[in-house]
Amino acid sequence: MDRYDPDRRVGLMVDEWGTWFDEEPGSVPGHLYQQNTMRDAVVAALTLNIFHRYPERIHMANIAQLANVLQAMWLTRDNQLVLTPTY
Q1: Are 9 and 56 in contact (CB under 8 A)?
Q2: Cβ contacts of residue 71 below 8 Å, gap of 6+?
Q3: Is the CB of residue 69 less than 8 Å from the CB of residue 16?
Q4: In Å, how far from its chain's centre is CA 30?
Q5: How many CB atoms lie within 10 A of CB 74?
Q6: Residue 6 lies in a domain
Q7: Which of 3, 33, 61, 66 is an S-S bond match for 14, by CB 3.0 to 4.6 Å?
């Protein structure tokens, strides 16, 4: 981007970053429930590192989902909540 926008007038918005793997077996098809693992935490750390290294370019970044799907930060069931490695 520095080549085409050396004055850094254009900012990037990264929407719905995160991993997308197979749904959890036994979950409702199409609801994208996915178990969160340390692999997701590593992806989150690498992604956040990039965002922090280039704040002059990245003006906004949104994780894909907050709870129960894709690279969620929370997993819930009934009245229970657990923080995932991404959190």
Answers
A1: no
A2: 18, 19, 20, 34, 36, 40, 43, 44, 63, 64, 65, 86
A3: no
A4: 19
A5: 15
A6: no
A7: 61
The closest of 51, 86, 42 to 68, measured between CA atoms, is 86
Q: Is residue 78 part of a domain?
A: yes
Q: Residue 86 in contact with residue 35, Cβ under 8 Å?
A: no
Q: What is the pLDDT of residues 69-78, one digit of tens each?
A: 888 899 998 9
The torsion angles phi and psi of 36, rounded to 5 degrees, stand at -95, 140
Q: How many angstroms separate the CA atoms of 17 and 86, rounded?
A: 12
User: Which letter, b or e, does each residue of 27-47 get, where b requires 16 or more Cβ atoms within 10 Å of its Cβ?
Assistant: eeeeebbbebeeebeebbeeb
Tokens in use for 15?
A: 């929407």
Asked if 61 contacts 8 with a C-beta cutoff of 8 angstroms, the reply is no
pLDDT number for residue 20: 83
Domain count, the chain: 1
